Description:
This protein is α/β, with parallel strands linked by helices. The protein is built from four helices and eight strands. It is 34% helix and 33% strand.
Amino acid sequence: MFPLQAIFNDKIPLLLILVAYLLAGCVASNKSPSAISIYDLGRQQAQPGQQMPQQSLQKSKSLLIVDATAPAWLDNNAIHYRLLYHNPTQTYTYANSRWIAAPAALLTQQIRNRIVASTNEQVLKDNSTAKADYALHIELEEFTQIFDMTDASHIVIGLRASLVERNTRNLFAQKDFSITEKTPTADAAGAASALSSASNQLIKELVDWLTAELPHD
């Protein structure tokens, strides 16, 4: 019959191995998740507007660019996509890729920057500094990647622009804008690249429309 102390000594190495295994499992289970890829709309390519006479510059209108709005499902920083070949009525989001801010907020800043760079309008962010002659309201309706097949996709951006005269609160002009563009790759990075490129083109069309609609006399 072996002494009790000898039995415990024989089992100590086995216990140490078991403890080491459990600790290794805990470390593995606590590994950080896959890195999150964060995207924005990149540096937009501003195209300066046509030079205007000094008299016209003095009569340019002040324009309030109201923060763009979006439906609840789009009012977040997720990158949304649809599977046209599977269930086109359902939207999905990428788990490890997202926008740095909600698309409506990103577009608002890009539109403000483009109008300042491309026109002679006096752009206001809010009413705290001065009263604007007109207000531009943007409703973002679509900002999504569409998969036609598992390895092919395109993006869709849709928005409505409304120009309101501040004194009368009358709707001065309104237009729907929509643009599609193929993605260079059928993934989140491809969606971000195409959405950035398409938003640049769409904002140019918006600014051209706005420049034509705003009176300068």
